Amino acid sequence: AQSVTQLGSHVSVSEGALVLLRCNYSSSVPPYLFWYVQYPNQGLQLLLKYTTGATLVKGINGFEAEFKKSETSFHLTKPSAHMSDAAEYFCAVSDPGSGGGADGLTFGKGTHLIIQP
Amino acid sequence: NAGVTQTPKFQVLKTGQSMTLQCAQDMNHEYMSWYRQDPGMGLRLIHYSVGAGITDQGEVPNGYNVSRSTTEDFPLRLLSAAPSQTSVYFCASSYSVNRANTGELFFGEGSRLTVL
What we know:
- The structure holds 2 protein chains of 2 kinds.
- By secondary structure, chain A is mostly beta strands.
- Chain A has strands at residues 3-7, 10-14, 19-26, 32-38, 44-50, 56-58, 64-68, 73-78, 87-94, 105-107, 111-116.
- In chain A, strands 2, 4, 5, 9, 10 and 11 form a 6-stranded mixed sheet that branches.
- In chain B, strand 4 and strand 5 form a beta hairpin.
- Chain B starts with a strand and ends with a strand.
- The mean pLDDT of chain B is 90.
- The A-B interface holds A 9, 32, 34, 36, 41-46, 49, 51, 90, 92, 94-100, 102, 104-105, 107-110 and B 4, 31, 40-43, 45, 48, 50, 56-59, 90, 92, 96-101, 103-105, 107-110.
């Protein structure tokens, strides 16, 4: 079974500083990887995803993530934080061979990003 | 574009009452699912459906029923509400039966349920 670990339930950065949200996964096969963002009182929306090909993927709002197979990681970064980035961020992993089964997509517990003015 | 629409947005129930959370999508998505979100627990899958007439259980199905009579609608029924079902519920859909090939779930805005 696959699992996702997000290090830090809360991360606080100053406006303009680097954002780094950590995600590690365990999977028996090369996975598909995702980051979702949840703004207050809203549903989740996809930030970016890695399936195959280039390991550095760019998403919306200036975020990017790099798939590092040797480290089983998919950390999310943004060079300069903005107040509007304050939200909950979820890492998720999918087994490409799951065929849409109940365990096909596994979410981490989320990281709350706080932006200090 | 409406996307995924959930109703109601807020609901307060007494223990033992039943209710239905409605979910509708207008994107002709095959796959639909219900999650609950609790503090520190992330999202947990309750039930899902890969097409009209087909449903299956997720990680936490007890106390909930679903049906999928049409492609568009996927209601979640609480049979006899309990305080442990106090949560925020999200409906999500995807345009592929095989979620793994796409990975992009489209979420509704959520339904906040309190059971007293």
